[in-house]
Amino acid sequence: MSDSHKTGPLKIAVAGLGTVGAGVLKLLERQADLIEQRCGRRIEVVAVSARSRGKDRGVDLSTAEWYDDPVALAAHPGVDVVVELIGGSEGPAKETVELALERGRHVVTANKALLAHHGTALAAKAEAAGLAIGFEAAVAGGIPIIKGLREGLAGNRVSEVHGILNGTCNYILTEMRTTGRDFADVLADAQKLGYAEADPSFDIDGVDAAHKLAILTSVAFGTPVDFKSVHVEGIRHVSAVDFDYADALGYRIKLLGIARRTDHGIEQRVHPCMVPKAAPIAAVDGVFNAVIAQGDFVDRVLFVGRGAGEGPTASAVVADLIDIARGRSTPTFGVPAAQLSEAQPSPMEARRGSYYVRLMVVDRPGVIADVAAAMRDQNVSMEQFLQRGRAPGEAVPVVLTTHDTEEAAMQRALATIADKESVVEPPRMIRIEQF
Amino acid sequence: MSDSHKTGPLKIAVAGLGTVGAGVLKLLERQADLIEQRCGRRIEVVAVSARSRGKDRGVDLSTAEWYDDPVALAAHPGVDVVVELIGGSEGPAKETVELALERGRHVVTANKALLAHHGTALAAKAEAAGLAIGFEAAVAGGIPIIKGLREGLAGNRVSEVHGILNGTCNYILTEMRTTGRDFADVLADAQKLGYAEADPSFDIDGVDAAHKLAILTSVAFGTPVDFKSVHVEGIRHVSAVDFDYADALGYRIKLLGIARRTDHGIEQRVHPCMVPKAAPIAAVDGVFNAVIAQGDFVDRVLFVGRGAGEGPTASAVVADLIDIARGRSTPTFGVPAAQLSEAQPSPMEARRGSYYVRLMVVDRPGVIADVAAAMRDQNVSMEQFLQRGRAPGEAVPVVLTTHDTEEAAMQRALATIADKESVVEPPRMIRIEQF
């Protein structure tokens, strides 16, 4: 560690004063005495940077030096820590972090995209200089999951970590289930309520969850961050009827990030899942996030909390600041960057498990026999078949579930089924996870 | 900190080789390389102590020096950390820990009784010497709740912490609910299965949960450990019929530890509670533990995991050892012992909330009127009243719930009711908590 573990105040510079940045300043202001007790020193904001200076953020910025340029802020003299809350994997966020490390400042960031894309390189850079990168806020908001995994479960070999990593998707799925409304309808509402962005793609297409999963995987397994190997599917194709069928079959639908050590290597995937209603994660609704880790000694540990928002994210950022103020250090991903062990990614085709499939088919004799034959030809064993209601000659939804099978076989069966003339829409598939 | 943060191995002495002690040695042996990666150094067991030397514990003790006397072990030269896994608030456990601190060794312990009774004094002693006391294993087994609260939520003012802190009680209550069997019957089974001790009183009378709660309270609120102020009730009086009524009323029955800042001071209580079925804690069944913390910025965070057992407890002990090996230090209860702020305990009589009351009354006209009058005389407002089945002239159970009221008023009403001739058994009351 550098010289940060001393008795003077910890001097920080904050780049980015959006919701989270303002929250961090409010927290530091409101809990100054508490934080001093817990750190043994004060935390002092000496410089800030944001796009618009005039905006009222409800915090006193008069004692901090203002920078229009975050990269210039990273070079502000006498700063111990640069807090990067700009966001984005490239551009000013990356430049700010890199310059901060070059100048010998610790970094605290909420930027999952940055770490998903450049985490390993940044960790190596930081560790070579004896600096910390705190990123508790980058995954699952206020839940202390990075600390929990990296330190709390440090005695365990972790075999699996999975969770609800995107509050926007979980909110949408929860609303769809409880109101019976359609995806587009609920999304529009979520946008009005501020739970979804104007351009919601990052969230609903699973990219945000995939960024977080790639980081979690690295912390859990001690491997370099490998975002490009994450299989990503979002929730656009989850339909209102899927919730009815899921309910009838005893499941809930969740967008999960799952990382698992398998015989084929490390599996990383984000996609909608059906999980048994009794699984603890099935009960985590609305904007809440949850992470479950499976360690060889501790068994399963579940963490639940708010995955976003001003207060929870500020709480995580400040926890990292307090660690730095106290001189508590840990290698970025739990083991030193140079010791992260490259691991083979397991291809999605190797996934084993069961499947839920929804088809729109013309309601006439022989159609199901065709579907069943396509499954049989790929050695996929059907477990259940459901057709609710009849409409001879018209398109009706039919649903089936399979026994455990391989993704590759399932995909081949689905391709054959999609080609059938009586199958009038692309088949929709949701993987079933038996936690 | 003392000289423990160096590059040689961390040398530890383990006092007590029961289930947990053996688990710790197994973990250290099996994950030696992993731990070295995470600590930057090895952890070496240089001395051990237990009552019987001959016993096969499934671990290699050949390289560790044997002590019959744990107190002598604490004085073994060249030890960095003494791991105390003997148990008990007095006697050898206390002497071992005290001598270890006097000799400049860090302490790691799973001993909740010791910390509940002597935590503040031991913390002061440790901190004066620049030593750590790690006690993650003392509360909620494998769940990293001490780290989560003390570091992960360090930026928050915590207003409440509550949880399922005793796996034995939770197992018994879960079995009673799912099988409809009686307390005594389920307890006998739990004893056979090893989930309950031959003398189960410590668990089922709530003392163990109260020890853990007193520690959690101190960490959450930065107050000296105040075990004597914990109001403690166990689960002996929870009856099979209570589960039927709870179910009908929309509740689950859990033994909870609850610590809350109120206008009257700090409330600490352990007793059976009815919690709404939809509350996340209601779904935590069997031997699992759960802790929920409410922070002003992070809002609610829930932690769930195994509260006892060889693996989970060893996981927690080793996490503390890794912290010490890495030189990560935190004041014992989050803020330095000298700065723990004395807080007024809130008397149990000041508890506000609603109540479930079960009475055995003679089934004849006027009895309910008497009960209702006793409640009215204390300004206790009844919400529901349930009498299932009739047996004129004989004793029948009747159940009622109240609106929010004060414990003191409720107790007076219950005392009056108990005195009625037609009330043939002591009234049983379970507090309702609306989380």
From TrEMBL, chains A, B:
The Swiss-Prot or TrEMBL record describes its family as follows: Belongs to the homoserine dehydrogenase family.
Q: Does the keyword Nucleotide-binding apply?
A: no
BP term (GO), one? threonine biosynthetic process
Specify the enzyme's EC class, one word. Answer: oxidoreductase
Residues the record marks as active site:
K212 (proton donor)
Query: Which InterPro entries does the record cross-reference, listed alphabetically?
Result: ACT-like_dom_sf, ACT_dom, Asp/hSer_DH_NAD-bd, HDH, HDH_cat, HDH_CS, NAD(P)-bd_dom_sf
- Residue positions annotated to bind NADP(+) are A15, G16, L17, G18, T19, V20, G21, A22
Where L-homoserine binds, per the record, is at E197
Question: Which pathway does it operate in?
Answer: Amino-acid biosynthesis; L-methionine biosynthesis via de novo pathway; L-homoserine from L-aspartate: step 3/3; Amino-acid biosynthesis; L-threonine biosynthesis; L-threonine from L-aspartate: step 3/5
The molecular function GO annotations come to: homoserine dehydrogenase activity; NADP binding
PROSITE patterns tied to this protein: ACT, HOMOSER_DHGENASE
Boundaries of each ACT domain copy? Answer: 356-431
Q: Which PANTHER family match?
A: HOMOSERINE DEHYDROGENASE
Write the protein's name: Homoserine dehydrogenase
EC number(s) in its UniProt entry?
Answer: 1.1.1.3
Per UniProt, NADPH binds at K112
What are the entry keywords? Amino-acid biosynthesis, Methionine biosynthesis, NADP, Oxidoreductase, Threonine biosynthesis
